[in-house]
Structures are given as C-alpha cells and as structure tokens.
Amino acid sequence: MDNQVSSAVGEKGDFSTRPAGPDRKSSALDSNVLADLEDDQVGSKPAIAGFDPTSFPDGGLQAWLVVSGAFCCLFCGFGWINCIGVFQAYYQTHQLRAYSPSTIAWIPSLTVFFMFAGVGLASLAEDQVS
To answer: What is the pLDDT of residues 69-117, one digit of tens each?
Structure first.
C-alpha cells in the first residue's frame, strides 16, 4: 500500500513535484488541500460538527452486565434454534405421534417468530421510556 500512496503522491511525499498535466490546472482548492494535509492537526478535528467520538460515556459495570445478559439470552435462543430438528423428531415419536410433521412444525415456527417479533415491540417500548 505504501507503494501506491508514494506513486500517487510523488517521491518522498512531496506534493509540489507532481505535474499538473495539460488537462489539470492548479487552483486554490489544490493549495487548500495541500495545506490541510501538511497541517499537524488534521486528525484532531471531529468528522461531524459537534460530534466527538471520544466523549462517549462509560457505563461501567452496569453497561457490561447488560451486554453479558444480552449475550446469555442470545446464546440460549440460538441454541434452541439449532436444536429444532431434534425436538421435532422427539415430538413425532413420543407425545405428538398422532399429528402430522407439518402440524408439529408449527410449534418451533411460532416460537422462533415470537422470539424475533418481540424485538420490535421492545425497541418501541424502550424508545418511549428513554
């Protein structure tokens, strides 16, 4: 990548040695860009006015407990999704053997639907609270 940058910029990072070419004329815009690139404080300005990513609040232990709880819920939920075929086979041979497989398939299908449908409602409720 350094080779690509140096060939586009010029030798030793010198911007002024780059030829203007017949179709390209130097302008005030080029000099402003060069001045910004040579300035030592280029990376210190926030990308969006009034937004500083380093000023995010640290939630501490409470925030990390929320993250841990969400991980545990998702871990259990997706574990259930990966085992649906095993449970359906068990239901077909034991408790629900009188029912067809398509009828039994409604049980895990609705379970998965309600797992994900609740997310939208919880999100709306959380937005109203905060």
So the answer is: 989 988 887 888 788 889 999 999 999 999 999 999 999 899 888 888 8
d(CA 97, CA 89): 10
Quote the Cα angle for 32-36-37, to 5°: 115
Q: In this structure, what token pair is assigned to residue 15?
A: 């911007």
Which DSSP symbol is given to 90? H
Determine the residue type at 50: G
First-residue to last-residue Cα distance in the chain: 46
CA angle 73, 74, 80 (to 5 degrees): 95
* AA identity, residue 81: I
